Every structure is written in structure tokens, then in C-alpha cells.
Amino acid sequence: MTENDALSLATDWIAYWQAPEGSIEKDELSWTADKEWQLIREAPQHAWKLILAIVKLDPPAEILAAVSAGPLEDLLSYHGEAMIDTIEAEARHNTRFATLLGGVWKNALPQAVWVRVQALRETVPRDDPSA
Known about the structure:
Blueprint: H1 3-18, H2 24-28, H3 31-42, H4 44-56, H5 61-93, H6 95-100, H7 111-123
Helix pairs in contact: 1-4, 3-4, 3-5, 4-5, 5-7
């Protein structure tokens, strides 16, 4: 997945989450949720690119909350041990991304990964989530 592919998918993913429930637009963009899920399960590095692309597009807080509790939490649940070093590095230099960690729940995260997520929450500067 190229950066342009990730940005294109991210744009459509955001539009899906912003579309009104039951709308034609929501229905037409539902493929983005399926694609996100496929990437998380089968291609975690591509899912990671999607998450970063969504953050790069600077969506509103409610979309960032959906990323936290959705793709990021799922990525950590399925591939946390393989991805946590990358996630820690990103959080240390990207305060907008670091803010997402506040919306991740323990859910199915491996305990060792959860401990590291909690440590990041406590030590890494984050953007003001109300901004």
C-alpha cells in the first residue's frame, strides 16, 4: 500500500464514519470498514499506514475516537506484540497520534502490550483531546 493508497482509503473511511446512519453514502462506503478489518487481520503494516493516514488528514475528534476504539485497538489486539515498538516510536514524536492512545481499551490486548500502552499514556505528551 502506497502513501497515496492509504490517504485515499483514509479519506473514504472518514467519509464513511461521518455519513448519516441509513444514508446511501454510508451504504456506498461500507466497503471501507470491511477493508479496514481485512488489513488489520491480514496486513498489519498496511493497517498501520491507514491509521497514520487518517491522523494525517486531521479529522474531527469524534473520528479520532473511532480510530482509537476501532482500528488502533484492534491492531494492538491482533498484532500488539509485533507493532508496539512502532507505535511507541510514533507516539513519542507525534502528539496527535499519542492522543489516540487515550481511547484504547484493554479489550483483548495482551497484558504486556497493555502495560506499555498505559505507560505511554502517562509519559508521552499528547494534544489536548478537546481541541
